[in-house]
Amino acid sequence: MQTAHAAQSKLPALVRYSLAIALVAIALLLSLVLRVPFGNPFWFFFSVAVIATTWFAGRGPGWVAVCLSSLAALYYFIPPLYSFAVKPQDVPFFLSFVACEMVANWIISWQKQTEDSLRQARDELEVRVAERTSELKDANDALLNRMEEQKRTEEALQRVRSELARVVRITTIGELTASIAHEVNQPLAAIVANADACVAWLTLQIPNLVEARAAAERTIMGATRASEVITRIRSLINKTPTERAQVQLNEIIEESVVLAESQAKRNNVIVELELERSLPVVLGDRIQLQQVILNLMLNGIESMSGVTGGPRRLIIRSRIQEDHQVNVSIEDKGIGVSAENMTRLFEPFFTTRTQGIGMGLAISRSIVEAHGGRLWAESTVNQGSVFQFTLQIGSGSSE
Amino acid sequence: MKEQDPIVFIIDDDALIRDGIHSLIRSIGLRAQTFSSAPEFMHAKRPDAPACLVLDVRMPGLSGLDLQRQLSDANIEIPIIFITGHGDIPMTVRAMKDGAMEFLTKPVRGQDLLDAVQNAIARDRELRKDRAELTETRKRFASLTPRETEVLKLVVAGLLNKQIADELEMSELTVKTHRAHLMEKTKADSLAHLVRMAESLRNSLRK
């Protein structure tokens, strides 16, 4: 209602009331002028004056118009003419005239008020919609800015990350080279020492053939070892198994346990075996497969070196799968692998240790895959990991 | 004191290299003993003879440099010949500072190693001789009476008998007697010899 008032009071009160008087005066004038040809049509003009006043100036001036119209009608048109007196037989006529005017005023003012409040509501709604729209636009702009900024940050991050990866790769290639150099240099050192010794025994005044022969044999062993290193590196690069022989994985597992024994003991790890007795053989390179198993075992032992309290158990299982495959799993109760690292676990040069070049798992996977198998890992942080691989059963013979 | 035959200790985790060096050293008539790790060497009973150590720098567990430190902490003085795959400069400097005799890179030429071993044993022989002399000198000096020790200090400081007598408030004759006794007990041939012995003792104490 307040809003309706506000709309009406757009015009000053003086103008509104003057309008009432002016309209009634015009109606009176018209009625007086037209009285002679048309008899007594005064109520039409007064009604129009009241309706117009109420419509344009509001309810108050409407009432003024009603009163003025009534007085004018009383004075000019209701006998006795030119007097405010009323003959008793004309009273109902006059009263119905006044009533009509009042009803007109009331209906129009009600109608006007409704329309005003509707318009007001619509205007308000429009204002609010506009406000909300601009708020939304601001929010949208801010969001766009943020997205833009984030995109830039991500790009910068990506650049830094790839740069870092490059540096890490260069560093680790250096480490890899150093590691290979050491592997090759060891047997070379053995060859030189033993060959020198052999020559020394032979150049004695009385040559010691027994010692010279022993030294020469060690020289040959050194050379063989050097060539094995080269072969290993070559097969690592080619990623193809150099040999395909029937291999009993249980035997390899048991040998690996012996090889890893001192490491397990040093870390207080108990190694448990759950091997399928009638495990069929697989076709493959024995040395490479042993490298895979040993690598997984040492990783498992290493992952438990920091574990306190809980049991340090490494469980190695072998079993036959229904799909004509052999499965070997190595389970540890170590620190586990975070989901983030899990995705990169088998990438070359990825490592979480301070020592180590991050090639072990990458090489292991490439070996298993070159054998037509699969190697994967499952892990729960602080619970442990299971590394397992499958290989196709070879040649059907079972032991 | 009869000196035993010199011995070379070889510590290397690689059996082939170890056996090769062992054989090479025996071929020139030297005794040698091999160990596959530093702790094994530390725990072994070693013969009392001029010796040297042929040591691989890079070994799993206790490295060659760690062993050098342990030996020096335990006051065991033995010349060390290091053998390394790729000796970087800081490592070499550290080892040399700590008293390494030689730093040879793999693969080592036989003659280089044998020369280094001979030098190291000669050096250890001298060291042992010095140590033995020092022990003997210490024993002789310990047999002096308190009065003789006082006289000794002043004699070595270069005072004349008369000055010593004044200093210690005794007769010059008594000083002469003490002096004769202490020369006899320390088996000093001359005043110069006595001063040298006292000096070497002082140096060993300072160390």
What would you say this structure looks like, in words?
The complex is a heterodimer of chains A (399) and B (207). Chain A is α+β, with helices and mostly antiparallel strands and 399 residues long. Chain A folds into three domains: 2-132, no CATH class; 172-238; 245-398, Heat Shock Protein 90 (2-Layer Sandwich). The two termini of chain A are 100 Å apart. In chain A, strands 1, 2, 3, 4, 5, 6 and 7 form a seven-stranded mixed β-sheet that branches. Chain A contains eleven helices and seven strands. In chain A, a hairpin with a 3-residue loop joins strand 4 and strand 5 (325-332). Chain B has a five-stranded parallel β-sheet with strand order 2-1-3-4-5, with helices on both faces. The radius of gyration of chain B is 23 Å and the shape is elongated. In chain B, strand 4, helix 4 (89-97) and strand 5 form a beta-alpha-beta unit. Classes of the chains: A alpha+beta (399), B alpha/beta (207). Chains A and B meet through helix 5 and helix 6 of A and helix 1 and helix 5 of B.
Short description:
The complex is a heterodimer of chains A (399) and B (207). By secondary structure, chain A is of the alpha+beta class.
